[in-house]
Amino acid sequence: MPDTPTAVIGLGRRRLLAGVAGAGAVAALAACTSNAPAAAPPAAPAPGAPPAGGGGNAAPGRPVTIGFSAPAADHGWIAAIAANAQTAAGRYPDVTFSPVNPTNDITQQIAAVDTLINKKVDALVILPNDGSQLTAQGTKAMQAGIPVINLDRIFDSPLAYRTWIGGDNYGMGVSAGNYVGQQLKAKGVTSPIIGEIAGIDSLPLTQQRSKGFADALKSFGFSVGPRQAADFTAQGGQRVTANLLQAAPRLDAVWNHDDDQGIGVLAAIQQAGRSEFFMVGGAGSANAMRAIQADNTVLKATVTYSPTMASSAVALARLVAQGRGLGDLVEQEVPASITLASATVTKDNVGKYLPLGFES
Amino acid sequence: MTERPGETVVAPPAAEQGRVERAAARADDRPLLARVLDTGAGRNVGLVAVLVVLCVIGVATADTFATTSNLLTILTSASIIGVITVGVTMVIIGGGIDLSVGKLMALASVWATTVATQAYGPVVMVFCALAVGAGGGLVNGLLIAYGRIVPFIVTLATLISAQGLAERISGKRSQIVTDPTIAAIASTRVLGIPLLVYVFAAVVAVGWVVLNRTTFGRRTFAIGGNAEAARLAGLDVRRHTVLLYVVSGLCCGIAAIMIASLTTTGSSTHGTLYELDAIAAVIIGGTLLTGGRGTLVGSILGVLVFTTITNLFILNNLATEVQNIAKGLIIVAAVLFQSRAQRARS
């Protein structure tokens, strides 16, 4: 290598330039990691607000501390669960909210729930990573005299919770099936081709949703045609749908189980330029509801599995801890089990549900 | 030349050389088929045959298989993993491995689609994706070449931390692409063919030229074949290794923009297990995992085989788990074939 001064200077200058360019790029990139909206979005009424004109239960009662434990957000839905619980608790002046660090590790969640039991909170709201694996902690809390509100993923034993509140996966499929059936009947389609894009097939919740969908369609004399499972991701939704659309040159309706993967599903439908069918979503994300409201895609409805259940769980925990019942019911106690109905959100009622939609 | 006792190695005269080669050729008494299949082109012929069989099955079982729009769907599905496979093929031929590709793509897709990045417009978004990809590759390369850590471990660590960083930045949510230019890439067609397919073709073409017609490519084969010999021959092995991983990272950056457009999101869930898909395609494409030998065309045919299988299964409304069984069987068959061919040669 010629070791002349010019070569050295040339090399030095090149290195310097490369270094400066590199540092600049790094600085520019670091500025690009922010997700704060450029302009504040119009303030939507926060989900989880207690009913405005609520009966006697809205009045403050004995001050209570409510412990809260949920998995870490890996999905818009879980993120909304934690946010809703927090917001709901903030609405009650008599509630002190005591959340523990969210985690996806079951041993950490067990430890976190133990901490809350030791703190002697007045009530616990628990969304377990896995119902079976946290049943012992639920039982322990109940034995320690702390009522447990079990959120969505159910414990193995009724001894582990005071009240269970959660969504209805079978009912979600039924709602979707009923909507699809009614629409097709109204259009007078005789032998429709109905597609289904499921979540993860090995999960019981996916199997229940699919069963509800098939059962509801059967009551109209219809059945599911092409059916594929994506994986609750936008990427999986896009891949599966792109291919499924090739399998079915004509479709009349499609039910997609999950609005998060639905972003990819809609992208694939638009890329294929297809619009001869209508689609129903699932879960009820704000994004899907905005698309339904705008009415410029094939997405015409979504069936909810709403994370607002976390708000309701906090409200129930407060009532249970204060020894009150549910306002309009005759009983003096909160019921032991509450299964939420899956609402069908369409263009006609989307205004009512949009504030409850979660950001995916 | 001074001849020392005990050393009687003398280069044979030219005529003699020809005779030796002919004798060697005669000594190769393997069946003709084995010899043909052993060449790079031969192995590709094998893969083309597999593809043809798959297409025949497709035409026989699904009446929409042989339509233009379905074939374009297969190519579009193959485009993203295909671009990544180009980078992975180069790294593997160069004697390395890159497990970080899938999540590096996810990180780049997230970084390029944050609210802040999207505010700067499409050019910055593309630059951001490429810079994040290449930067991740640079980190891999530097740690492997100068930190002297095994590639498997470095890129595994990058996979994990890229996933974490992507989740951190996105808050584990799907970031929706609102920029109309980027969103339009996937739905744009030129002469009836999706733009993504052109990008795929361009990356493959550039990769092929670099690998087969440039000094960079020859050095890659030399280093992958025997890094020590390459170093003694005067090649800067470490610098070249860094460059190989940067190229792989750059491919991830390109793929990140493609997937952001195709799914209209940037997400930490993108590219899960892409590293294994890419490596599987490289293996059935006839590239040796030990480096030094391989073809880009084979890898791309491997990608097409896998994508066609996925398409076939969905067209026939079969579940994904059956698909994975078929993919596994094909990998085993290809590797068995490869090792047999290798044994027959030695």
Describe the structure.
The complex is a heterodimer of chains A (360) and B (346). Chain A is α/β, with parallel strands linked by helices and 360 residues long. Chain A contains eleven helices and twelve strands. In chain A, the strands form two sheets. Chain A has a six-stranded parallel sheet with strand order 2-1-3-4-5-11, with helices on both faces. The N terminus of chain A is likely disordered. By secondary structure, chain B is mainly α. In chain B, 74% of the residues lie in helices and 2% in strands. Chain B contains 16 helices and four strands. The radius of gyration of chain B is 23 Å and the shape is globular. Chain B starts with 13 loop residues before the first helix and ends with a helix. Classes of the chains: A alpha/beta (360), B mainly alpha (346). At the A-B interface, helix 1, strand 7, helix 7 and helix 8 of A face helix 4, helix 6, helix 7, helix 8 and strand 1 of B.
